[in-house]
Amino acid sequence: MIGVFWFYYLLGESISMFSLMGLVMLAGIVVNNGIVLVDYANRLRHLRGGNACRLRPGRHGGTRQGGMRQ
Predict the structure, then answer these.
(1) Please, are residues 16 and 4 in contact by the beta-carbon 8 Å criterion?
(2) Is 45 exposed, middle or buried (0-12, 13-18, 19+ CB in 10 A)?
């Protein structure tokens, strides 16, 4: 969202009411996606039994993008 303000600043554009409405909608989508992500992680943790579901960001990204399995 901060990138939007930088974009307007770099182009020399003024922030209009429509762009502010778009920012509010974008913030709502970001919050909604965060809620869905946390809910999904909680459901996985519940299904797998407690702390068995750990998020490993270091290993996840590279192996998933490379097409390999963990």
Answers:
(1) no
(2) middle
DSSP 2-68: HHHHHHHHHHTPPP-HHHHHHHHHHHHHHHHHHHHHHHHHHHHHHHHTGGG----HHHHHHHHHTT-
Whole-number mean pLDDT of the chain? 78
pLDDT digits (tens, 9 = 90+) for 16-30: 999 999 999 999 999
53 alpha-carbon distance from chain centroid: 19
Place of tokens 């996985």: 44
Residue 70 has what DSSP assignment? Answer: -
